Amino acid sequence: MKKYNIKLLWRIGILILFSGITGYLLSIQFYWASIFPCLAIIWASHHLFSFQKRNTKDMKRLINAIQFSEFNISFKNFSEKGLSPELISDMETSILHFNNKLKKIEAEQNFYNILLNRIDFGIIVIDKQEKISWINKSALDLFEKPQPRQLSDLEKVSSSLPKILRELLPKETKIIKIEHGKTIHQLAITSIYFTLEGKQLKLISLKNIQTVLEESESDAWKKLIRVLTHEIMNSITPIISLSETFAHPDKENQEMLIQAMQIIHRRSKGLIRFTHNYQKLSRIPNPIITSFKASELIEDITQLLQADGLSFSYHIQPLSVLLKADRGQMEQVMINLIKNAHEASSEQVRAEINVEISLNEYQRPMIKVIDKGQGILPDVLDKIFVPFFTTKKSGSGIGLSICRQIINLHGGTISVKSEVGKGSCFYISL
């Protein structure tokens, strides 16, 4: 900068010098003689203006290069045109720094684009105007359509898909079926909101769970068939055995025949009862959704259970929590869970059952049924929702299965945490 400052001061000095001479000549009325210093002032002014114009032009080139990311320019050999070597060095360093930073950003963008296009589930990003800002290759392959521009373009894939994506809330999971010819995809859809450059965007993930569902369905059928086979064989085997034994009765074993018929009758009733329970499990109606206060539901359940001598405490926060559900089915779920909690606390002098209802971080209802009973054994914990599985001598094994089916039909989840000797907590998220 020193050389640049010297050149600038030298030009300013010449301009001041000739201005002083011109002023002096005019003061002593040497008008003709003042022409020459005036011309020198004009020349010096033009020279100073050109000097600054060159610098301004070069600085503008630097600014434009940064603004439009054009970093293939150079300022070498510009010292002869007015720029100082120090300034040229700083500008060259700045250009190199921005160039390297741009290459790094482009490399990172390419890396994330490759990464997001290689994952095995679809990703869509939409803005508030429902414009699709970004979509990965897996989503395009899933839709088997040209790249959509608007959310409404996905109606060609499924008429209900745009509406589901539009109304999907964070942490909420929806399952939708789409078909392409003979191929069926079951998609699990979730979403989150995020802000980028002051714009709120919605990121939606679409996971094809068809294979997982088929495997889960197969496992569920295997478990159910094992249970059905066990129950049916327990009833049929003694009936067949007794039938063969008394196929040709005589007078001497008349009394034993009567006992055998009683056993057959009892086992047949048990088989009918089992079949009736299976019908109840498989014929749960679709919920009729209404909106009601959680406090009203709990007060009604309190009165119903008091008639059976069962009591529990409850806490609702805030008291105005609204539930959007089938009220009758939710009563059935809550009564079942509270009765189970009492049975688990049967060894206590006074059962401590507590129901907590609150809103989670996404303002969705969360229900907890907590007991301090004997708890559930770890090897049993993952089986308690399996139909007909029970550890009770007189239990049917369908209560919790029905609870899970009802909650699933509401689009919610039910889970349990338990510790032997300390109690259990059932969680319902709607």
Can you tell me about this structure?
The chain has 430 residues and is an alpha+beta fold. Helix 1 packs antiparallel against helix 2, helix 6 packs antiparallel against helix 7 and helix 9 runs antiparallel to helix 11. The chain is elongated, with a radius of gyration of 42 Å. The two termini are 70 Å apart. The mean pLDDT is 76.
Task: Compile the SSE list and pairings.
Blueprint: H1 2-27, H2 35-67, H3 85-118, E1 122-126, E2 132-135, H4 137-143, H5 161-167, E3 174-180, E4 183-196, E5 199-208, H6 210-245, H7 254-282, E6 290-293, H8 294-306, E7 313-317, E8 322-325, H9 327-344, E9 353-359, E10 365-371, H10 378-381, H11 399-409, E11 413-419, E12 423-429
Parallel strand pairs: 7-9
Antiparallel strand pairs: 1-2, 1-5, 3-4, 4-5, 6-8, 9-10, 10-12, 11-12
Helix pairs in contact: 1-2, 6-7, 8-9, 9-11
Question: Any key phrases for this structure?
Answer:
single chain; 430 residues; alpha+beta; Beta-Lactamase; 5-stranded antiparallel beta sheet; 5-stranded mixed beta sheet; 11 helices; 12 strands; elongated
The best one-word shape is elongated
CATH architectural grouping of the largest domain? 2-Layer Sandwich
The CATH class of the largest domain, by name, is Alpha Beta
Main β sheet profile = 5 strands, antiparallel
Termini gap? 70 Å
Uncertain segments of ≥5 residues (pLDDT<50)? none
Order of strands across the biggest sheet? 2-1-5-4-3
Strand percentage: 15-25%
What structural class is derived from the secondary structure elements?
A: alpha+beta
Total beta strand runs: 12
- How large is the count of helical segments? 11
Order of helices and strands: HHHEEHHEEEHHEHEEHEEHHEE
